[in-house]
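Milestone 3.1: sequence recovery, worked example.
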């Protein structure tokens, strides 16, 4: 036992820098650490500390998702969204339902990539076909993904926030709505404005007014629910404080706002907005107060189709495409965008799904792909594509293996450009900023409560390195862990 203890201490000392303080040593001794660095040119393992031990990588998981997308879909792949009908066009009238059939495009109406005004473009396309009246509903067909948009392991607190938005067969407006809160003089708060949410949401506001605590606003809402709960506190006198939340039913949001835009564009509609998921209708129609009164039904007399929905015999009226995957993964990694990562992850599952894709489809597909490339993911626990599941765990060695594979891939330039420069860009603009490695490291960061991780490529003094370092279970502030990580990288990347 003494020999084992001595060997353990010697192993740790190899990876400790002389500059570390006693408190730094305490952080290391109380943390779970998985670390590996490889000199790409020589193949030399420069550093290895528990590299085969799985640890929670948080958003470093996105490296696996984005690398898989480049290799399996290709850098020029684009998500299609189809505008279809189950009826026909007669003169200026569409007799049948207008259908948006999605494939999980995360950029549909997104403010980060693609067109924010995609619904206006659809209206223009419909009107160019001479359609002035629609004798039917506006239907969002989101059946390409299963009915579980949120991975099982996500935390309830995250699901209601905009960064915890689930991935649906149809996404819209980054699956984000904005609520604005004001604190009244009588000690109560109110919702002063809402943007991009369904109008039938029942909002339970439990936000208090307090001078005693730091302001905090939280939202809770389950997928497909029309009940949202708000909790937290505001300082007195605050006005129109924004809170971004995840929309609970993006497909229906897409149908509703397309419906409104069509009517605003002069197209009369007899039906209502609704959605279809796995052949079933959820929140099939919005209640009457939400349906604009400008509907015109006179040309559709006797032509209204049945409410029955069939997935077959649709006519494609137009197809809208996302930006290429190469552009999408750059947003994913630069901004650590969970929705983008999760949508890419789910879409990969469509490659093997017989019907609707699921997280398990995607996990199996990604494991199989990398196994065929010689990357061992046997010790990896993966539950999503973005790393928001705190139970997820990946060994640093597996991450480095993928980085080394991508370095020799024809898609390497796309992959590298998706990783921001430390000390300059994206979520790592402060990382390594006061070190010799500033702007010499293309890296993805990851953080959850008690988890901090970095992985990417280092270019220093003519040498090239691939590395992954994961710290878990630390109780110290993240900035102290970051300091240790920076010192290790500077020391090891000569």
């Amino acid at each position: 036992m003494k020999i084992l203890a001595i060997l353990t201490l010697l192993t740790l000392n190899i990876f400790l820098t002389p500059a570390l303080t006693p408190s730094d040593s305490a952080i290391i001794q109380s943390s779970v650490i998985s670390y590996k660095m490889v000199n790409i040119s020589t193949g030399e393992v420069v550093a290895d500390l528990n590299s085969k031990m799985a640890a929670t990588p948080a958003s470093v998981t996105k490296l696996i998702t984005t690398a898989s997308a480049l290799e399996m879909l290709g850098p020029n792949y684009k998500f299609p969204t189809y505008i279809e009908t189950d009826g026909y066009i007669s003169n200026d009238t569409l007799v049948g339902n207008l259908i948006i059939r999605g494939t999980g495009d995360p950029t549909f109406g997104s403010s980060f990539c693609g067109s924010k005004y995609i619904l206006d473009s659809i209206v223009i396309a419909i009107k160019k076909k001479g359609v002035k009246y629609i004798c039917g509903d506006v239907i969002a067909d989101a059946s390409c993904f299963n009915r579980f948009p949120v991975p099982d392991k996500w935390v309830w607190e995250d699901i209601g926030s905009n960064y915890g938005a689930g991935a649906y067969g149809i996404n819209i407006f980054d699956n984000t709505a904005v609520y604005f809160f004001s604190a009244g003089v009588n000690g109560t708060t109110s919702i002063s404005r809402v943007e991009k949410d369904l109008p039938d949401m029942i909002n339970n506001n439990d936000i208090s007014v307090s001078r005693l605590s730091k302001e905090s606003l939280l939202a809770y809402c389950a997928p497909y629910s029309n009940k949202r709960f708000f909790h937290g506190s505001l300082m007195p006198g605050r006005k129109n404080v924004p809170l971004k939340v995840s929309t609970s039913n993006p497909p229906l949001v897409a149908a509703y706002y397309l419906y409104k835009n069509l009517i605003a564009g002069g197209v009369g509609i007899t039906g209502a907005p609704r959605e279809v998921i796995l052949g079933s209708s959820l929140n099939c129609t919005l209640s009457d107060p939400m349906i604009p009164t400008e509907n015109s039904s006179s040309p559709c007399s006797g032509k209204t189709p049945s409410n029955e929905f069939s997935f077959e015999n649709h006519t494609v009226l137009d197809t809208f495409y996302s930006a290429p995957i190469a552009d999408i993964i750059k947003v994913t990694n630069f901004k650590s965008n969970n929705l983008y990562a999760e949508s890419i992850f789910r879409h990969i599952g469509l490659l093997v799904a017989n019907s609707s894709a699921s997280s398990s489809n995607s996990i199996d597909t990604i494991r199989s792909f990398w196994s065929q490339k010689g990357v061992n993911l046997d010790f990896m626990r993966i539950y999503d594509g973005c790393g928001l599941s705190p139970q997820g765990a990946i060994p640093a060695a597996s991450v480095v293996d993928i980085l080394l594979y991508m370095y020799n891939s024809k898609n390497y330039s796309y992959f590298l450009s998706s990783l921001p420069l430390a000390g300059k860009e994206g979520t790592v603009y402060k990382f390594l900023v006061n070190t010799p490695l500033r702007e010499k490291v293309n890296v993805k960061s990851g953080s959850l409560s008690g988890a901090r991780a970095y992985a990417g490529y280092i270019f220093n003094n003519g040498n090239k390195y691939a590395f992954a370092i994961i710290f878990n279970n630390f109780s110290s502030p993240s900035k102290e862990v970051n300091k240790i990580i920076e010192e290790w990288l500077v020391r090891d990347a000569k």
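The CA atoms of residues 77 and 324 lie 5 Å apart. The chain has a mean pLDDT of 89.
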